[in-house]
C-alpha cells in the first residue's frame, strides 16, 4: 500500500546520542508493531518508515507553539500502511507513550509530558478516524464487487432467466430486472422482504419509489439509460406495503442483449442494514468516550446543534458544563484507577438522574461532563436540577473500600437563543464554570501543587472523609467563648471533629464535601443549643464558622433558614462567621446581608486588623470580628492600636487561639472583648462540655 | 464446488460465508460480510491465536515470493488467492520487477469481481474465476494464456488451499496435473493446516467451518501427507516446516506464541 517516505518537516535531532536514542525507539516500535500488523513493507522499510514518523513526532514536540497535527497524521499513516488494527494502535500508544518521555531530549521539562499526552491523544484520534474511513471504503468496495459479480453472472447467462433467478434469489439484496419501458420484468424474494410485498411483474418501478425520492430516481435512470457510467448508485426510499418507507441504496446498471444493445436495467436494492450497522458502530466508537461509554465532546457539540434547532421555543434548552470538585484529590491520593471508577460512577448517576428528561449526558475531558436538556413544562428549574445532582453524588459510593462522595460545580447556560453557534455556547458554559470554580475554590490550586508528604496525607484524608462522615467517625464538638474582662462564658462555638485530622473543615472545603457537611454541623449545633435551652441547662449564643466554599454557596441562605425552621432556634442566637477574604465575591456579600436581615449575627474570621478589613465593617452588618491566631500570638501593638477603630464601628473583637494567661492578659489590656483558645480548655463533645460548664459554674458559686 | 451441476456461484449469497472473506476478516480487513464475520469470530473464539496464523501465512507468502524472485521466477500462478488485499503476490513481485506477471485463481465470484476491480489498471496481473479442481479450465483460461509462458519456470502458489480438497477428490493427482503443466525449474509454494501439530480446539474450529453454510469443508493433513503432495518437487531448505520456521527474516515472521508458528506447514519445492 503506502511506501516509506521521509517527511519534509522531520528535522533530524542534534547530536549522535540523540539520533541513536531515537533509532532505538523507532526500532522497538517497528519490532512490536510487526508482530500484530499486516503491511506491505519489508522489515527494513518498516524500520525506515517508523523512523521518519518518529522524527516528525519529535519535531512536533519541540515546536513552539506545540501543534499536535503531526501526531494525528502519523495515526492516519499507520492505517494507510495496511491492516493495522486496534492491536497495532495499542502497541503504538504503549511504546510511544513510554518511550518518548525517556528520550533525553524531552526529559528536561515537564512541558513535554503534557505534550506527549496530548500528542498520543491526537494520534489515536487520527488513527480512529482513518480506520473508520478505511473500513467504510473496504465495505463499499465489497458492495461494488457484489454488484459486479451479480452483473457478470447475469451477463454470462443472459439468455437463461431461470438460471439468473437462481443466483438472484439467493441474495439478501433486493434484485429487480426492469424493462427499458420502466416496467418490472422480474424481482427476487428479497425485494419482497424489503418492501413487504412481492411486486407484480408489469408494475412501473417508479410506483415503488417514495414521492420524496422520485426526482433522484428519475435522474438516476436517465443516467443509466444514457450509458454514462458503469453503474449508478443513490440512496432513496421505497414505498412499503403498509404505507411506511424503507431506506435503501439503489444501484442500477444497464444489461445488454447478445448484440450489445441495451435490453434491461438491473436494479439492486441494498437495504443498507449491514453498512448502516457498521457505520453506527464506528460512529459509536469515534463519538463516545471509551471509559464511561458516554458521548464525547464532539458528539455533544453536533447534538447541540440539532437540539438548538428543534427545541420547543417556549421552554428552550439548558446546557450544564459540570466539573467534579474533588477529582484531583481522588487521583493524587488514591490513584488513577480509583479515579476512573469514580468517573464511571458519576457517568452512571448523571445518566440515571437525567433519564426522565430528554437530555444527553456527555463526558468532555478529564473530570468534566456536559448535559443538554430539552426543557418541557415538567423540567425542574436549574437550581433544583443542580441540587438533585449534588445530593445524589454526595452519597458516598464505595470504590476499592474508599467511601467517595463528590460535588460538582457547574457553568449553566439557560435557554440560549436557537441561533447561537454550539461551539460558542460551550465556550460560554465553560466560562461560567470557571467563574463558579474561581469563586468557590480559592484554595484549589494550592492543593494540586502540594506534593509533600503532608499534602498527600491531607489529600488522602479528604477523599475518605465522606465515608468516615457517613459512618459517624466525624462528630461535632464545642468550646467556650469567654469574656476577656470577666472570664464569663460569652458563647459556645461548635466545630467539626475527626480523630484523623484537626483540619477537618479545611479538607472538606477543598473536596466540596463542606456543603452538606457544614449544613449538618449547623443543624447539630443548633439542635443541641435548643435542647440545652429547653432543659434550662445552658442558654447561650452559638457560633459556627463557615468556610470559603460555604460562604459563597448560592444555597447558603436556604440551608440556614431550613435548619432554623427545623430546630426552632431563634436566628439571633446563631452566629455565623465568614472568612473576610471571601467578601470580595458578590455571592458571599449577598449571603451575609440576607442572613443578617434574617436576624443571624454575622462575624468575620481571619480579620487582619488592617485598613481594608476595617472598610468591610462600615459596609456590612457585622457584629463581631475574629483576630486570627498568628496575629494574636504576635501581639503587635499596631494591631492593638486599631481596636478602638473597630469599637467605634460598633463591632466587638474576639481573639482566636489564646493559649496562655500572658496572651490573655495582653489582649485584655489592648481592649479586645472576647477570646477563644486552648487556654480555656480543648473542644469537647456535648455531654462533656456541659459537665465541664456545670462544674465551672458550681466552682464559681 | 459441490458435485452437482448447480452453476449458481455460492459466493454471491452474502448469507453464506466465503472462506476468502473469512480469511480477510481474520487478517484484520473489512472486505467481508456479516456471515463471514460471524464464522470468523466463532473460530477466533476457539483459536484466539488465529489472527497470528493468518498474518504468518501472509508473511510467509511475502518471503516465498521474494525467494522465488531470487531464483529468477518472474511469473506466478496463485491458486485460491482470495480477496486481494495488502501485500499480495503482485505487489511483492512487481515491487521488485514491474514486468513480473501474476495470474490469480479463485472460485468465489465476489473475490473475483473484487480482484478485477483492483487489477483493472495492472496489465501484468489478472484473475481467473475457476475451481482449482478443474486444472484444465485454469490452465487454458485466456488470462493464463495471455500472461504466462508455460515453457518458462512458473511459481505455483497454493496457500491455505489444499486442506479444502478432500482425499476423495484426489489432491495428489490435482497437484500432479498442475506440476506436469509446468517446466522443470518451476516452484510450488504451499501452506496447509498441520493436523499433527495442533490440539482439539482446531478440530472444533474446523467443525465450525464445516457446519456453516459454506461449501468448503476442511480436511487437515499431517506432515507425511502434506509432504506427499510435494511429489515430483524437491523441497528447498529447511523443508516442510512450521510456517513461522520457514526462513524467518524478522520479528513479524514469527508469532509470540510458539504453537502458532506450527499451526501451518509451509514448504517450497523445486520441480526436478
Automatic annotation (TrEMBL), chain A:
Instruction: Please give the superkingdom of this protein's source.
Output: Bacteria
Residue ranges occupied by any PAC domain in the UniProt entry = 232-284
Q: Which Gene3D superfamilies match?
A: 3.30.70.270, EAL domain (3.20.20.450), PAS domain (3.30.450.20)
Q: Which residues form the GGDEF domain?
A: 315-449
Extract the InterPro entries matched here. Biofilm_reg_signaling, EAL_dom, EAL_sf, GGDEF_dom, Nucleotide_cyclase, PAS, PAS-assoc_C, PAS-like_dom_sf
Q: Which CDD domains does the record match to this protein?
A: EAL, GGDEF, PAS
| One Pfam assignment | EAL
Q: Tell me the ranges covered by the EAL domain, including all copies.
A: 458-697
What is the protein named?
Answer: PAS domain S-box-containing protein/diguanylate cyclase (GGDEF) domain-containing protein
Q: Which organism is it from?
A: Lentzea albidocapillata subsp. violacea
Q: What is the lineage of its organism?
A: Bacteria, Bacillati, Actinomycetota, Actinomycetes, Pseudonocardiales
UniProtKB/TrEMBL annotation, chain B:
Question: What GO biological process terms does the UniProt entry carry, in alphabetical order?
Answer: methylation
Q: What Gene3D superfamilies does UniProt report for this protein, alphabetically? A: Vaccinia Virus protein VP39
Q: Which UniProt keywords apply?
A: Methyltransferase, Transferase
Does this entry carry the keyword Secreted? Answer: no
Q: Which domain of life is it from?
A: Bacteria
Q: Which GO terms describe its molecular function?
A: methyltransferase activity
Q: What is this protein called?
A: S-adenosyl methyltransferase
Q: Which organism encodes this protein?
A: Lentzea albidocapillata subsp. violacea
Amino acid at each position: 500500500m503506502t511506501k516509506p517516505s521521509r517527511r519534509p518537516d522531520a528535522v533530524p535531532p542534534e547530536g549522535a546520542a540523540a539520533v541513536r536514542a531515537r533509532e532505538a525507539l523507532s526500532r522497538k516500535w517497528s519490532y512490536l508493531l510487526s508482530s500484530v500488523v499486516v503491511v506491505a513493507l519489508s522489515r527494513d522499510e518498516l524500520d525506515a518508515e517508523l523512523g521518519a514518523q518518529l522524527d516528525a513526532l519529535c519535531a512536533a514536540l519541540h515546536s513552539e507553539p506545540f501543534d499536535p497535527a503531526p501526531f494525528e497524521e502519523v495515526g492516519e499513516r499507520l492505517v494507510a500502511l495496511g491492516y493495522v488494527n486496534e492491536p497495532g494502535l495499542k502497541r503504538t500508544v504503549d511504546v510511544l507513550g513510554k518511550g518518548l518521555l525517556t528520550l533525553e531530549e524531552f526529559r528536561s521539562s515537564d512541558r513535554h509530558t503534557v505534550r506527549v499526552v496530548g500528542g498520543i491523544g491526537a494520534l489515536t484520534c487520527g488513527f480512529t478516524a482513518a480506520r473508520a474511513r478505511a473500513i467504510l471504503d473496504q465495505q463499499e468496495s465489497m458492495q461494488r464487487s457484489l454488484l459486479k459479480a451479480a452483473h457478470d453472472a447475469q451477463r454470462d447467462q443472459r439468455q437463461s432467466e431461470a438460471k439468473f433467478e437462481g443466483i438472484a434469489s439467493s441474495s439478501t439484496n433486493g434484485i429487480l430486472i426492469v424493462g427499458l419501458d420502466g416496467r418490472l420484468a422480474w424481482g427476487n424474494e428479497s425485494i419482497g422482504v424489503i418492501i413487504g410485498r412481492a411486486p407484480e411483474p408489469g408494475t412501473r418501478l417508479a410506483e415503488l419509489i417514495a414521492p420524496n425520492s422520485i426526482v433522484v430516481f428519475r435522474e438516476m435512470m436517465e443516467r443509466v439509460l444514457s450509458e454514462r457510467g458503469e453503474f449508478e448508485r443513490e440512496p432513496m426510499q421505497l414505498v412499503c406495503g403498509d404505507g411506511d418507507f424503507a431506506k435503501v441504496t439503489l444501484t442500477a446498471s444497464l444489461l445488454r442483449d447478445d448484440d450489445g444493445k441495451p435490453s434491461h436495467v438491473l436494479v439492486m436494492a441494498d437495504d443498507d442494514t449491514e453498512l448502516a450497522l457498521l457505520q453506527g458502530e464506528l460512529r459509536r466508537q469515534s463519538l463516545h468516550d471509551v471509559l464511561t461509554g458516554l458521548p464525547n465532546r464532539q458528539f455533544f457539540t453536533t447534538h447541540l446543534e440539532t437540539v438548538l434547532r428543534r427545541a420547543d421555543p417556549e421552554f428552550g434548552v439548558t446546557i450544564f458544563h459540570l466539573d467534579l470538585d474533588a477529582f484531583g484529590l481522588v487521583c493524587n491520593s488514591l490513584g488513577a484507577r480509583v479515579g476512573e471508577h469514580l468517573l464511571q460512577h458519576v457517568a452512571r448517576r448523571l445518566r440515571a438522574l437525567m433519564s426522565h428528561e430528554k437530555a444527553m449526558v456527555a463526558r468532555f475531558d478529564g473530570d468534566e461532563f456536559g448535559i443538554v436538556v430539552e426543557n418541557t413544562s415538567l423540567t425542574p428549574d436549574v437550581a433544583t436540577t443542580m441540587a438533585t445532582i449534588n445530593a445524589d453524588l454526595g452519597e458516598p459510593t464505595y470504590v476499592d473500600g474508599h467511601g467517595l462522595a463528590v460535588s460538582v460545580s457547574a457553568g449553566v447556560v439557560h435557554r440560549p437563543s436557537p441561533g447561537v453557534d454550539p461551539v460558542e455556547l460551550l465556550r460560554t458554559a465553560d466560562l461560567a464554570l470557571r467563574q463558579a470554580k474561581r469563586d468557590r475554590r480559592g484554595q484549589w490550586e494550592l492543593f494540586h501543587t502540594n506534593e509533600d508528604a503532608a499534602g498527600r496525607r491531607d489529600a488522602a484524608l479528604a477523599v475518605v472523609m465522606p465515608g468516615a462522615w457517613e459512618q459517624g467517625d466525624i462528630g461535632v464538638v464545642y468550646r467556650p467563648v469567654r469574656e476577656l474582662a470577666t472570664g464569663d462564658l460569652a458563647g459556645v462555638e461548635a466545630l467539626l471533629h475527626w480523630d484523623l485530622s484537626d483540619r477537618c473543615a479545611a479538607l472538606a472545603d477543598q473536596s466540596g464535601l463542606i456543603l452538606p457537611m457544614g449544613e449538618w454541623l449547623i443543624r447539630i449545633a443548633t439542635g443541641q443549643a435548643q435542647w440545652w435551652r429547653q432543659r434550662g441547662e445552658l442558654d447561650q449564643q452559638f457560633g459556627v464558622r463557615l468556610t470559603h466554599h460555604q460562604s459563597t454557596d448560592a444555597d447558603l441562605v436556604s440551608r440556614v433558614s431550613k435548619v432554623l425552621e427545623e430546630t426552632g432556634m431563634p436566628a439571633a442566637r446563631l452566629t455565623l462567621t465568614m472568612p473576610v477574604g471571601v467578601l470580595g465575591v458578590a455571592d458571599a456579600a449577598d449571603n451575609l446581608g440576607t442572613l443578617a436581615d434574617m436576624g443571624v449575627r454575622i462575624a468575620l474570621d481571619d480579620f487582619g486588623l488592617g485598613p481594608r478589613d476595617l472598610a468591610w465593617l462600615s459596609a456590612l452588618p457585622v457584629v463581631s470580628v475574629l483576630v486570627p491566631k498568628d496575629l494574636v500570638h504576635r501581639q503587635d501593638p499596631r494591631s492593638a492600636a486599631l481596636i478602638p477603630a473597630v469599637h467605634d464601628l460598633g463591632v466587638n473583637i474576639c481573639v482566636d487561639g489564646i493559649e496562655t494567661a500572658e496572651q490573655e492578659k495582653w489582649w485584655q489590656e489592648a481592649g479586645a472583648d472576647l477570646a477563644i483558645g486552648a487556654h480555656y480548655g480543648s473542644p469537647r463533645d456535648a455531654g462533656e462540655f456541659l459537665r465541664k460548664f456545670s462544674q465551672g459554674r458550681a466552682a464559681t458559686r | 464446488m459441490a458435485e452437482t451441476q448447480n452453476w449458481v456461484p455460492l459466493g454471491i449469497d452474502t448469507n453464506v460465508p466465503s472462506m476468502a472473506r473469512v480469511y480477510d476478516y481474520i487478517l484484520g480487513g473489512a472486505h467481508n460480510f456479516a456471515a463471514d464475520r460471524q464464522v470468523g469470530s466463532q473460530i477466533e473464539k476457539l483459536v484466539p491465536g488465529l489472527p497470528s496464523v493468518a498474518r504468518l501465512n501472509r508473511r510467509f507468502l511475502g518471503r516465498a515470493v521474494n525467494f522465488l524472485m531470487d531464483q529468477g521466477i518472474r511469473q506466478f500462478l496463485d491458486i485460491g488467492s482470495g480477496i486481494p488485499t495488502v501485500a499480495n503476490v503482485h505487489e511483492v513481485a512487481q515491487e521488485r520487477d514491474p514486468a513480473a506477471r501474476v495470474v490469480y485463481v479463485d472460485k468465489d465470484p465476489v473475490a473475483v469481481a473484487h480482484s478485477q476491480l483492483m487489477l483493472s489498471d495492472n496489465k501484468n496481473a489478472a484473475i481467473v474465476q475457476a475451481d482449482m479442481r478443474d486444472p484444465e479450465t485454469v490452465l487454458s483460461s485466456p488470462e493464463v494464456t495471455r500472461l504466462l509462458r508455460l515453457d518458462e519456470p512458473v511459481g505455483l502458489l497454493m496457500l491455505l488451499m489444499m486442506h479444502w480438497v478432500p482425499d476423495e477428490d484426489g489432491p495428489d493427482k490435482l497437484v500432479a496435473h498442475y506440476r506436469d503443466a509446468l517446466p522443470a525449474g518451476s516452484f510450488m509454494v504451499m501452506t496447509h493446516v498441520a493436523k499433527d501439530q495442533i490440539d482439539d480446539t482446531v478440530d472444533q474450529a474446523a467443525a465450525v467451518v464445516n457446519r456453516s453454510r459454506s461449501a468448503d469443508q476442511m480436511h487437515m493433513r499431517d506432515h507425511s501427507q502434506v509432504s506427499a503432495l510435494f511429489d515430483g518437487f524437491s523441497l528447498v531448505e529447511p523443508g516442510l516446516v512450521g510456517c513461522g520456521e520457514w526462513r524467518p527474516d524478522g520479528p513479524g515472521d514469527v508469532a509470540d506464541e510458539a504453537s502458532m508458528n506450527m499451526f501451518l506447514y509451509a514448504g517450497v519445492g523445486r520441480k526436478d
